[in-house]
Amino acid sequence: MIRRRLRRAPADERGERRSLSAPRPARRPARLQPHYDPEAFGRFSEAIARNIGTGRFLVIQSAVVVLWDIVNITAASLRWDPYPFILLNLAFSTQAAYAAPLILLAQNRQAERDRIAMEDDRRRTARSLADTEYLAREIAGVRLALGDTVTRDYLRSELNRLGEELARIRRLLEN
Q1: What is the DSSP code (8-state) at residue 9?
Q2: 103-119: b or e for each residue (b if 16 or more CB lie within 10 Å)?
Q3: 30 three-state secondary structure
């Protein structure tokens, strides 16, 4: 006998109502919608922010600006951007427009990592405090228990005292 597996129709197709406590089925994204990996984009933005914030970047950018100015001022045949340097200004504006959000994204990711690390440190500190308090209670309990027991020094002092008492009693009996 061959058993066939029948696919059960969704609740809507069966005429049943879906419960409010049940999540909706996931919708498949349309094939033409762009998709990006937020983690990869975040790592990319952190790499950009890490490079923009270096002295090397500032030196290279300053060298490009000086070279741009020299070529556009001196070489008459190569003047692609005359004196007010509008193209250079546009390039800097575009760089700033992209750099600021990338740097903010990198800072937000770092703040999230810092928050997670701080919560982890807080949990670890609470655990250490609880362990320390437990050990302090245990040591106090051991001290209380040892207060009722005989120590070597106490036993020695009592034996010495009893020996002296016996010696005194012998002297009284001999006399």
Answers
A1: P
A2: bebbeebeeeeeeeeee
A3: coil
Tens-place pLDDT, residues 51-68? 888 899 999 999 999 998
Roughly how many angstroms between the first and final C-alpha of the chain, as a whole number?
A: 118
Q: How far apart are CA 165 and CA 162, in angstroms?
A: 5
Indicate the length of the chain as a whole number: 175
Rounded to an integer, what distance in angstroms lies between the CA atom of residue 127 and that of residue 20? Answer: 40
Helix (H) or strand (E) holding 163: helix 152-174
Structure tokens at 8: 């059960």
pTM reported for the whole predicted model: 0.50
Q: Where are the alpha helices (DSSP H) in 15-85?
A: 38-52, 55-74
pLDDT in tens, 77-120: 777 787 788 888 999 999 999 889 988 988 999 999 999 999 99
pLDDT digits (tens, 9 = 90+) for 118-165: 999 999 999 999 999 999 999 988 888 877 677 788 889 999 999 999
Backbone angles phi, psi at 81, to 5 degrees: -140, 90
Locate the domains of the chain by residue range. 36-165
